[in-house]
Amino acid sequence: MKRAFFFVLVAASAVLPAGERPRLLAFGSSDSCAWCRLLERRVFASAAWRDWADGHVAFTRVDLPRGDGVLAPDVRACNNALADRWGVEGVPTFVALAPDGEAELGRVKVPDSARGLGRDVTPEAFIAAVEEVLAGGASVSVAQERDPPVSVAQKRDPPGGGLSAWREYRFIPVVALLGLAAFLLVDKSKLPLALRGLKKVLGSAAPSSPSAAPPVPVWKRLLAFALILIAFFLAVL
Fold first, then answer.
1. Are residues 86 and 151 in the same domain?
2. What contacts 70, CB < 8 A, 6 or more positions away?
3. 152, 209 contact by CB (below 8 A)
4. pTM score, two decimals?
5. Mean pLDDT, the chain cut into blocks of 10 residues (237 residues total)
6. Are 132 and 204 found together in one domain?
7. Of 103, 138, 160, which residue constitutes the final position of a domain?
8. Helix axes of 123-136 and 47-56: crossing angle, nearest 10 degrees
């Protein structure tokens, strides 16, 4: 899915002849762009977008990956040159060009909540933003929802609802919840007996049989089960 966003040239068809269609360059990052993956899933994989793009624009995706080895060196150099030429400073950015590829008509940047280009973006909202640029030649401004714009040099994830940071650090609350659940389920009354038994084993003496301990209360079991469920849902988000 990460690589699916890039390197697809949408073939043009009937509404405008190939030589008359404006070009739309989609700058993104295949290995570090949550918004690119969201747009691929919600917009570019849809029949509505494909039907519109086929007759209105020559759509080209330009990958600006963060890691090494994702692209061949010559392809990476070409893509970086395109980003430098058009002054692309954040991803995803969509640059609309005249049919000759020389003049910029405008650009669309995501997210832009004012134009419906947020996490619930639809193909229709994205098409409307592109049509506005193509019709008026005015740039669609960025309305970043949380973090400052992502630079091409840094190639960090865009806000994406904090998905990148959450996925990196979510192990902390998950481990804490599982540890608390284990603490509730452990019969702590047996710990001293276990320690004494260990000492006797190490001293080559047979440990005494531990006395029966009361079972873990039902409320502790239920609370531990709830904590485990919460940890599971946090881990898969």
1. yes
2. 30, 31, 63, 76
3. no
4. 0.53
5. 41 46 93 92 94 93 89 92 92 93 91 87 94 72 38 44 59 84 72 65 56 71 86 78
6. no
7. 160
8. 20
